[in-house]
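ingest -> validate -> predict -> emit
validate: passed (alphabet ok, no gaps, 344 aa)
predict: started
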Amino acid sequence: MRRTIFVIASVVVSGFFLWIALRGVDFQQVMQSIQQAEIGWIIVSFIGITAGLWMRGVRWRGLLDFKPALIKTCHILNLGFLLNLLPLRVGEVARSILITREGVPVVTAATSVVLERLIDTLLVVVTLVLSITQLPNTPPEITKPTTVFGVLVVIAFAVMVFFARFPKIGHQVLELVERILPFLKRLGMDKLFDQLLAGLKPLTHLNSAIFAIVWTFISWAFSFLTLYALIRALNITNADGTALDESSRFLLTLLGLALASLGNAVPVSVAGIGPFEATILLAGQTVGIPKESAISLGFLFHGVNILGYAVWGIVGLLATGVSLGDVMNSGQKNDQKIEAPEGV
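emit:
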């Protein structure tokens, strides 16, 4: 019964956001734009999503202390992305379970996924802040608070890494906060705090931190390439019909990537359909491109992502030798994941 309700809710949420995104759009113009897209740039985009997935596999293997073979790690990660296309979105849990077959301890597997999401979330927030502050004609009343917010997020992340290095100090601070705000004790903050610190533990070692940060930037650079190539494929113009200059393409790519990642984090949707398109539309209208162009970009970008996840996820499924039903069932029985922006 619970699964049925969740699936129905996912369909409703996807339909609602899709309706919002498509209101007042000339759908014939959208389809014509997609049909006229340059195939060469679309191929570059698919190469970008493929490389991004495999680079994330390299990063994940490092967070697993390099214990599993790289090819196995990549296959299991790609399978996880495939499962996240389904309404119940058990991909993170399923890959945490599957990787234990390669000799990885359960705790290491679980905390590695948490750390991935924390790093990706930090990068998305920073990218979003940078994008907003670089928008033309943005008033200081928006740019200044946004900049402050971004700095505070980075500082908060650094403080949590410090607490992971010195957990005793972290718990002392938590106890102080709970004395000031007693209602927090009823929320079970101790357990959540311990899980957070455990996830951040690898970043307390310099080599591990550098490895995770470098490969995060590399994987997201390929995600950037994926979206940038599609902007070029569609020959997107400004609202007045003039060609986008390179700085506008760059800004649209950054903002679209950040917002699409936030849209992907919506847990109740079907393969992100609806929230994904709505966020790309928001990015496009913020930069100043026509609504139809933004929707065309959203559909094409989402389609390339789904195709990449499906192709390499099926390859991963075949390579690991497990059935989709078994993976889904194991993921649902152990569904204790953190929802956060997912790399696109």
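The radius of gyration is 21 Å.
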